Structure formats: C-alpha cells, structure tokens
Amino acid sequence: LTVAMLVVGPVLALGAFFAGSFSREQYDMLRKEVDWEGNNPPGVLLHAASFDDAGGAHVVDIWESPEKMNAFVTTRLMPAFQKLGFAPPNVEVFPAHNINAYPAIDKSKP
Predict the structure, then answer these.
(1) How many helices (H) and strands (E) does the chain have?
(2) Cis (ω within 30 of 0) for the bond into 42?
(3) 3-state SS class at 8
(4) Measured between alpha carbons, how far is 21 from 33 in angstroms, rounded to an integer?
(5) Could you tell me the pTM of the whole model?
(6) pLDDT, tens digit, for every residue of 41-90?
C-alpha cells in the first residue's frame, strides 16, 4: 500500500493516494474502525475511493494542511491499520498543480 501526498500552495491542501493490493473488504473494515464519515477529521476537505479490477485500492484525500493530515494519520489512521493487522502504507509527498471542485460536487455530499 502506497500513499502519495499532493501539496497545494499557498494553503497547502494535501491529497493522499492509496494504491496496491488492499481489498474492498479491508477498506470497509478500516473505514468502520476510523469512522472518518461519522467523526470527520479536522482539516479534511474531500475523500474518494475506488478499486481496480486487480484488487488495488485508489484513494484521494484533500486536506487543508499537512499538519492536519499528519495528525489524522498518526492519531487515527495508523492505529487502526495496526489494530486491524494491516501493513502500514508508505508515504510520498508531491506538489499538486491544480485542484478543482465544481458545483455538482454538492450532489455527492452526505
């Protein structure tokens, strides 16, 4: 499992991409354990997940700052990976060139 962070200036929003053999079932177990939908992490702006035909997970998160993302990862995400017995992800950081959110995104809000 690999996590790549996108850094967007000047606010420094981050995107985290997970890829690799991490099943839909594992994702749903992690989702339930961390409860990011019921207990939104401070600073997260967007979360989306998909799975390819080979069983790889692809997730993007957009964050207000690297500090808020790191707080979530260290206090909630990594402890859940450990509790569930999942291998922790590798993390890489990359600058983002452009992120757009269009009005239709409102249809996807919970």
Answers:
(1) 3, 5
(2) no
(3) strand
(4) 19
(5) 0.79
(6) 998 888 888 888 888 888 888 887 778 888 898 999 999 999 999 988 76
Whole-angstrom Cα distance, residue 65 to residue 19? Answer: 22
Question: How do 2-8 and 13-19 pair as beta strands?
Answer: antiparallel
Instruction: Please name which of 35, 28, 40, 22 lies closest in space to residue 88, comparing C-alpha atoms.
Output: 22
Identify the three-state secondary structure at position 53.
coil
Place of tokens 């995400």: 77
Spatial neighbors of 21 by CB under 8 A, at least 6 apart, are 1, 54, 55, 56
The CA–CA distances, whole Å, from 72 to 37, 58, 98 equal 13, 19, 23
Look at the block and give the residue holding tokens 């799975």: 51
Token match 């069983």: residue?
55
